[in-house]
Amino acid sequence: MTSYRQHCPVATAAEVLGQSWTLLVVRELLHGSSRTSEIARGVPGMSSALLARRLKQLADAGVVTRLASTGEGRFALTPAGRDLAPVIEHLGHWGRRWMPPPRSGDLKPNLLLLDICRSIDPARLPREKVSLHLRFAETPPPRWWWLVLSSGGASSTDTDPRLPMVARIDCTVSALAGVWLGHRTWREALSEHAIRFDGTREAVRNTIAWLGRNRFTESALKVSASNRMTEQQFD
After folding, report:
1. Is pLDDT above 60 for 50?
2. What is the mean pLDDT of the chain?
3. How far is residue 131's CA from residue 109's CA, in Å, rounded to a whole number?
4. Exposed e or buried b for every residue in 74-90, given b needs 16+ CB within 10 A?
5. Model confidence, pTM
6. How many other β-carbons are positioned within 10 Å of the β-carbon of residue 227?
7. How far is the C-alpha of 128 from the C-alpha of 42, rounded, in Å?
């Protein structure tokens, strides 16, 4: 672990959290992942050896604790770890506001759909399980994915769940990420045929409402709108 040899609390915190992947591991734990395999699903570019090392470092620093379990390791945030929730939240808001849109090479359907599923409000979903079929044009296999939606929550799979299908979406990962992250609107993507729906008009409206937008996008758009109003007052 890097040592900055400074008394500053920013420096001492950075010694724990500044290592590669560390904040993303904390993000996954904040999302409710506890098993090593669950954490790994959210950081697929991280080797299992490095994940184990980061979890040990976080445990040594008092940020996480290892839970008693047989077989696969399970972890949970300590009070110190849970206290990082606003830090992760502010980083997300800052990144959405100031960083450029993601590069196409950084977009992965499994991660995008995982993020979308985590943000869907189950209260808005139908009681009985239904599926939404997504067909991505430009990605390596698997190109076909399904979202399983019900009042119990949302999940993604690359295996046909054999459930009633409300609609099918044909698009690229970048097009779906663009509307999800608020870099373009659904109307723009649909009019440009970057996203195509196969389903009834009601199903299309419901699907767009169910998927919503990334929570960091909402705050960024509100800030942009507020800034525009301020600028107009001084024009």
Report:
1. yes
2. 90
3. 16
4. bbebeeebeebeeebee
5. 0.85
6. 10
7. 27
